């Protein structure tokens, strides 16, 4: 029989893994979500991120070494600080944070030399962000803002031109109604599907979901390689279609 202990907000069961080996993913995910939302921190600053996904961020950053990371939706700033710390370790890169309000972001994030914050609606601020990116710089975009279908799709359409071939556009929280019964519906998952259906330059890289548990199913978008045969054919097709 499973020991019963104090609750984390989920079903009444022990919080220890070895007592819950028959737990389903459907039971596990809300428990992880509860922990993510109830005081997860990066160097003392609150962050709302599945740790599996942040590990993937680290692998992508190490492989791609972007010059600029644009993080849309910063909340308390813990994820922004974590990205800046990874840039510190790489000795490369800077972080542009965009949020409707940075009122809850502490000085340790604001004053980090690799961080610049801009307040306002992400799509409205696109021109400002683009002006921060120098010619030829490579950009990783992370969309983690309102998670409505309309806004996610608008951010994908607006910011995708910043992403160069083989680089990534990460969309957070496509787990809404695709793993967790919460959040907007339709939401990010459906916005991603709509975006890739209209934009053959991007593909979903499901190898980034290798831990199985991810808050971003289908959320790791990669701009296809322009120099591949497929890329050349796509360019030729566009030229013939007069685009
Ligand atoms: C999920 S939180 C961000 C979490 C953060 N990236 C982390 O991992 O800790 C979402 C944030 O998006 C912001 N937001 C919502 N709609 C936005 C919009 N249209 N433009 C910019 N930011 C927006 C909210 O103010 C909120 O702080």
Helix and strand layout, with pairings?
Layout: H1 25-37, E1 41-42, E2 45-46, H2 51-64, E3 68-72, H3 78-90, E4 94-99, H4 107-110, E5 115-119, H5 126-132, E6 139-143, H6 149-159, E7 168-171, H7 188-198, E8 202-204, E9 220-223, H8 229-240
Parallel strand pairs: 3-4, 3-6, 4-5, 6-7
Antiparallel strand pairs: 1-2, 7-9, 8-9
The site of S-adenosylmethionine (SAM) has 19 residues, from helix 3 and strand 4.
Give a verbal description of the structure.
By secondary structure, the chain is α/β, with parallel strands linked by helices. The protein has a single domain (45-232), classed as Rossmann fold (3-Layer(aba) Sandwich). Helices cover 35% and strands 15% of the residues. The protein has helices spanning 25-37, 51-64, 78-90, 107-110, 126-132, 149-159, 188-198, 229-240, and strands at residues 41-42, 45-46, 68-72, 94-99, 115-119, 139-143, 168-171, 202-204, 220-223. A seven-stranded mixed β-sheet has the order 5-4-3-6-7-9-8, with helices on both faces. Strands 1-2 form a two-stranded antiparallel sheet. β1 (41-42) and β2 form a beta hairpin. The longest helix has 14 residues, at 51-64. It is globular. The protein binds S-adenosylmethionine (SAM). S-adenosylmethionine is lined by residues 47-49, 72-75, 78-79, 98-101, 121-122, 144-146, 151.
Fill in the keyword field for this structure.
globular; Rossmann fold; 8 helices; disordered N terminus; seven-stranded mixed sheet; two-stranded antiparallel sheet; alpha/beta
């Amino acid at each position: 029989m499973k020991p019963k202990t104090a609750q984390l907000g989920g079903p009444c069961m022990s919080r220890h893994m070895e007592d819950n080996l028959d737990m389903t993913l459907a039971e596990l995910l809300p428990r992880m979500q509860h922990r993510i939302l109830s005081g997860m921190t990066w160097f003392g600053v609150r962050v709302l991120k599945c740790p599996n996904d942040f590990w993937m961020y680290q692998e992508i950053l190490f492989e791609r070494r972007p010059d600029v990371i644009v993080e849309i939706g910063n909340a308390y700033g813990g994820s922004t600080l974590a990205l800046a710390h990874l840039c510190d370790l790489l000795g490369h890169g800077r972080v542009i944070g965009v949020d409707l309000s940075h009122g809850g972001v502490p000085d340790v994030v604001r004053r980090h030399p690799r961080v610049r914050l801009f307040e306002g609606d992400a799509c409205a601020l696109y021109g400002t962000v683009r002006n921060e990116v120098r010619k030829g710089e490579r950009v990783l975009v992370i969309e983690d803002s309102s998670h409505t279908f309309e806004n996610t799709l608008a951010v994908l359409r607006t910011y995708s031109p910043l992403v160069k071939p083989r680089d990534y556009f990460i969309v957070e929280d496509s787990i809404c109604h695709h793993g967790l019964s919460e959040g907007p519906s339709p939401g990010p998952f459906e916005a991603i599907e709509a975006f890739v259906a209209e934009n053959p330059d991007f593909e979903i890289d499901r190898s980034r979901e290798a831990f199985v548990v991810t808050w971003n199913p289908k959320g790791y978008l990669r701009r296809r390689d322009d120099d591949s045969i497929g890329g050349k054919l796509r360019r030729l097709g566009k030229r013939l279609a007069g685009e």
